[in-house]
Amino acid sequence: MTGFNPDQISLPHANNFIGGRRVAGRGPAIVVRRPSDGRVQAELDSVDSDQLTEAVESAQRAYRTSGWAQSDPRARMKVMRRWADLIEADAATLAPLEALGSTRMLKEINAWDLSYTAETIRFFAEWADKVGGEVAATTPDKLGLTITEPYGVVAAIAPWNLPLVMAGWKIAPAIAAGNSIVLKPSEMTPFSIVRLAELAIEAGLPAGIFNVVQGDGRSVGDPLVRRPEVAKVTFTGSTRTGAAIMAACAETGPKPVTLELGGKSPQIIFSDATLDKASAIVARAITLNAGQVCVAGSRLLVQDKVADEVIDRITAAFNAHKAGPTWAEDTTLGPIISDGQLDRMDGIVGRAIAAGAEVLAGGGRATAPQEGSYFAPTLLANVDQKSEVVQGEIFGPVLTIQTFADEEEAYALANDSDYGLAAGVHTGDVSRALRATRSLEAGTIWVNRYGRSNDFILPTGGYKQSGIGKDLGREAYMANLKTKVALIEF
């Protein structure tokens, strides 16, 4: 599929999924707008408090009685593999549904998002029969066992920026480990996740193991994580919201949390890097999904002797973008998720310019073929290290540039942030690359590349205010299991 008419995509009214079926919410209706053109997409029917209770109790009942947690691990694996196959086979439905109300371009969803989501499910399915308990070293007259068990009901809150991909990160390890889950997607991108749940039932997942509840954070997200039946919480989103969730879990538990939070990630270009390649990577790392990615490389640190050449290359790449709707084949820069976010971004850039920042590219809203929320790829020089534009997460295609003389200065600038989600290093010197991985305070460091691969074995998660715990990798699977110990005396 190369494009579609957005007005021909039908959205069913019932957009909650409880106990294996679609359910119309009885809570307040939420207006959902298409960021590509600003038009009303639908009214989302959120759950009321009774329906939230129903969803959590459905998950708890399914965990206890469906046999999913106690089933042959390879049987769980087979169901999840079928689910992954159905996701890929359902591209004609899922891809337009995802593109319609999100910032993800249709061509990127077809090329990456759907297969990546399916592969995430396959990856965690494979862990189902690979992890068990251990026999401890004890005295010969005893047998010590460490036994792993699922938590039970896991509550998940997923973000709007990559709806299917981020939901997959939450759902797949929890379900593969034998848990049931209640997922609240963002109220701005709610619809594709319900289709994902329908496909899970079609694949053979027991009803109630995967539930979807719609609503905003205050009326649905907060009471969800506070439910006493919820044994674990996983969240991706802002640092402020993550802190509130952590506090709620402490008050009502305590219960473990996995938090993947904000970022203000540096990209460092040394003078010995291949500059054309490095510049292209840096430009894409801040314009991918219009910069609305938690690991977006939003701070460029470039060695002073090559700064002019790098600036020229990145400016040209920025100016070549064409803003447009997610469903248009020729779009290279998608929309910002909402007018509110666009206004916030415009304000941050405007204040930076007023404080003396030099605009090398962009600097404001972008023009597009129709109404919508678009921001031009922006490169700002002459910025103060302590300023809002350097220290705060903007979540848009805004890149600041600063120069450095040597490694020590580069690492000092890179680490001068409350965040520590990711970092990029571009160099031809392998020793320097290794020194950088030791010196940079970030959970993920990419060298001569920037962005995720399909190496699902590599966990992701941040340092400092960028989160607690890991998504992906063995770590994510193990985070959905608790342990008990048995000591048997002969």
CATH architecture verdict of the largest domain: 3-Layer(aba) Sandwich
- Terminal Cα separation, in Å? 66 Å
Strand segment count: 22
Fraction of residues in β-strands: 15-25%
Record the SSE blueprint:
Layout: E1 16-18, E2 21-23, E3 29-33, E4 40-45, H1 49-65, H2 73-89, H3 91-101, H4 106-125, E5 134-136, E6 142-150, E7 153-157, H5 163-176, E8 180-184, H6 191-203, E9 210-212, H7 217-226, E10 230-236, H8 239-252, E11 257-260, E12 265-269, H9 275-287, E13 297-303, H10 307-319, H11 339-354, E14 358-361, E15 378-381, H12 388-391, E16 398-404, H13 407-415, E17 419-420, E18 422-426, H14 430-439, E19 444-447, E20 463-464, E21 467-468, H15 473-478, E22 481-489
Parallel strand pairs: 7-8, 7-10, 8-9, 10-11, 12-13, 12-18, 13-16, 15-16, 18-19
Antiparallel strand pairs: 1-2, 3-4, 5-6, 6-22, 11-21, 14-15, 17-20
Features:
490 residues; alpha/beta; Aldehyde Dehydrogenase, Chain A, domain 1; Aldehyde Dehydrogenase, Chain A, domain 2; 2 domains; six-stranded mixed beta sheet; globular
Please describe what this structure looks like.
- The chain is an alpha/beta fold and 490 residues long.
- The chain has two domains: 6-261 and 467-489, Aldehyde Dehydrogenase, Chain A, domain 1 (3-Layer(aba) Sandwich); 265-455, Aldehyde Dehydrogenase, Chain A, domain 2 (3-Layer(aba) Sandwich), CATH 3.40.309.
- Helices cover 38% and strands 21% of the residues.
- It contains 15 helices and 22 strands.
- It has helices spanning 49-65, 73-89, 91-101, 106-125, 163-176, 191-203, 217-226, 239-252, 275-287, 307-319, 339-354, 388-391, 407-415, 430-439, 473-478; strands spanning 16-18, 21-23, 29-33, 40-45, 134-136, 142-150, 153-157, 180-184, 210-212, 230-236, 257-260, 265-269, 297-303, 358-361, 378-381, 398-404, 419-420, 422-426, 444-447, 463-464, 467-468, 481-489.
- The strands form six sheets. The chain has a seven-stranded mixed beta sheet, with helices on both faces. It has a six-stranded mixed beta sheet with strand order 9-8-7-10-11-21, sandwiched between helices. A three-stranded antiparallel beta sheet has the order 5-6-22, with no helix packed on it.
- It is globular and about 70 Å long.
- The protein starts with 15 loop residues before the first strand and ends with a strand.
- The mean pLDDT is 96.
